[in-house]
Amino acid sequence: MKTDDLIAMLASGPDVAAAAPPGTHWRAAGTVGAGLLASVALMAMLLGVRPNLEQLALLPDFWIKVGFVACVCLAAWHVSRRLCVPGASTRALPLLLALPVLLMWALGAIILNEAPPEQRAELFWGATWRSCPLLIATLSLPILAAVLRLMRQLAPTRLRLAGAAAGFAAGAMAALVYCLHCPELAASFIGFWYVLGMLVPTAIGATLGPKVLAW
């Protein structure tokens, strides 16, 4: 059963149904929920919730940040699920992942262009650029473990790609958790440094995928 020939057959066979096994959704919710709770606990222990979060939540930029990260989460989770179903179409998945990022980059570019020249560096670098990607990557680790465990119970065939998708989904969910602490609101900051933080677990997942997802 655990052979490259079987994987290739499942990936290319015309009669394979692109449907997840029964019970997958409940199992996914429980497994990923546990990883997400562990990430929240880690954030609370290491960083804490920002004391002025209520004031930040009154600002439109805060909800633009949260909305962007939430859209990336949904897109990355959908991609991860599709890569666990042999025979499922994946043609549109890169565009699905790229769309929210490109929109945030466009918004950031507009804001930078309209800002006075002396403020542009601050809008891009913020005050936490050194720690932001590392903290997102750290918070993603329990979620990455949960998503990889879930994928291992399913049937991914492109193991490195599936691992990378798991890492990106974990990074996006960790970024959502990190929003409870992060003071940064500029679209140019979020579009670059948050995405960089998501790419760290993506690289980790791509490395681990062939090792932990083989079946």
From TrEMBL:
Bilayer-spanning residue ranges: 28-50, 62-80, 92-112, 124-147, 159-178, 190-209
One Pfam match: NrsF
Source species: Janthinobacterium svalbardensis
Keywords assigned by UniProt, alphabetized: Membrane, Transmembrane, Transmembrane helix
Protein name in the entry: Anti-sigma F factor
Family annotation (InterPro entries): NrsF
